[in-house]
Amino acid sequence: MAYKLSAELEGHTSDVRGLASFGSDMLVSVSRDNTGRIWKRTGPHAFSEESVLVGHDKYVSSVVVIPDDAYPQGLIATGSMDTTVCVWDAANPGAPVQRLRGHSGNVCALAVSRDGRTLVSGSWDKTAKVWVNGECVHTLREHEHAVWGVLVLDDGSVVTGSADKLIRIWRDGQLVHTLTGHTDCVRALAATSGGFASASNDGSVREWTVDGLVRELHGHTSLVYAVAAANGVLVSGGEDRSMRVWRDGTLQNTVLVPSMSVWAVAVLSNGDIACGTNDGRIRVFTQDDARVADASTQKQFEEKNAVFALSAKAMGDVSLGNLPGPERLKQRGDCDQVVMIKDGSQVTAHQWNVERNEWIQVGHVVDAAAQTQKQVFDGREYDYVFDVDIQEGAPALKLPYNATENPYSAAQRFLERNELSLEYLDTVADFITKNSDGVQLGAQQPHIDPFTGGSRYVPSQSQAGGSVAADPFTGNRYVPAQTTAAYSPPSEYIINRQGNSSAIVKKLAEFNTELAQSDPHLAVSAEDMQRVSELENAVSEDACSVLLRLVQAWPVDRRFPALDLLRLAVAASPLPLTCHTYDGKSLVALVIEASNLDTVFSTDSALSKTDEINAMMGVRVLANMFAHPQGTDMAWAARSRILSALDGSWSRATNKNLVTSLSNLYFNLAIAAAQKSDDDEGLNILSASSRFLEHTDNADAQLRLVNVFGVLASKFQLCKDSARVLGDETIVILGIMGKSEAVKAAAKSVGAFLS
Description:
four-stranded antiparallel beta sheet
């Protein structure tokens, strides 16, 4: 029996990334809009938004409902890109009742034991964590890349699936078995009656026991992102805009939705199934006529499916010239079978409806490669030429667009040609995206991962260009050109050697005289001050030891000249790197603590002038450590602490010089990541830099951060794929509206390379 639409839930303003059910009457969804939402059934085919979960400050990626006798409606756990897990009372979700901390990357997977006592989280930080009563009792560390799927079996074993293509079984925190078979990233796991199932970027769903593979399920034509199981039914969802329903290893149903990506699926206890998609909607489907949506709602859903744009450019081996004509629709089909039909210059997709005994149109191929479908504007052929009404009574303006170009580039060209304000850039680009959306359906194709952009999240191999690039959070889909633009990234560290050392020494002497009167124990002797003054000409161990003492011990509002002189000394010689403080701290630790970098960006209060100056000086010292190989090694070894200290700095720093100094340090860290060939750390630096880039209008900082994208993307395929998600549109906009010509030039160069 076919599944029919039961309800369509609207409320989220961006992609629905996770979905969980509780009984038959409650769903919980999480989204890129930074929220979770609780939906309660209000009728046979209706749900209403009961509550909005507001507690995360970044994308919410995962969700699970936790059964708990003390909470009749259960607890809800949500995982976020902010690296935390929030636990909520479903009956009173005004604020989290608990926040679990420990991960250092996006918490992209959650699972709970049947009794609700054990929670497991998986993260981009390559670990899974086992939580009992809010405490982390085990950290599972054997995976080489992100842990996308987690599961708790009835015997207490934990299962993890990773981007390293492996599935691992754990007992009491110890690895006991590793399962191989998937040829690409494992994206999700679900418990079944006989074991568990996995979904993968390789396009397959597989069923397992703890001892090994039971069977492979093939039916999806692209990446599979989600899998859920209950009541003998296995449901999967993926990038082919479908949910697939499996029973006993056989594909029983294919449910198509008018949306690019099915990110999440769930099975309700009454047998209904649900999915969350990139258009921000949750859709519930049923086989029970009592819960089928009314005729008007069903008709609207079918109409959306019928006109949903499909792209022939990603159809792989399908030969459009050999497609059957309309006569094929006179023949019966198999349940949920999809066929492509060519009628003149039009190509459409149709699905067989068993109950109605007819073919239902489920898509329109908008760029079928036949040249007769191209439209001509100004002597050039385009996939689309839109009519845009700007003023009532005036002729419509023509907006040409090829599916192989970035919508922002086409929008810019349109606005400039018609002398319209660039303030409309986002509006026009959004119009293009919404009116040219499309994916391949029903054909074998390269497995293109919209989570990371143009290619799969494949840690160990590079990908060829020319695949469909995508932003999984917004649903915007671009099809970049087949060729890769030439790009030469910068490779030299930025070292700030400029400074008036005489003036700095003079200020130190002034402060030392004041301290001799107010706090004599903090002042240094005339001999020590003379040693410090000699740093103008040469760096000595004795002088460095005195300088480090000043940096560490002087009052906060008197430290900045010592930090500034340390900056120059570090740039001139590696000797300060080897000088030890009286308490044995490393130079990195000393500088971070002396300049309050550990705390200054994590408070809600405004930064004082002293805060800004010390932070700027401290950041400059850290950046100048990259002037020497020893300093590079020291800074790189402490990269986690540095990145943690800088987290959120872009939203707190307002001083222009501080903002520039921060961007220089991120740039140097990116160069180091490329030199050290560390793609995982490169991704962390890229993620932070993308948020920084979104916040700043400082021209110098924009230039450095755009180049961070270029440095990391040119070195690591993983970072190149992620850059398309994290900052592709921002960089395109900077190529048009950057704060300087240098920013515009760099953004155009990096943007061309990314596409």
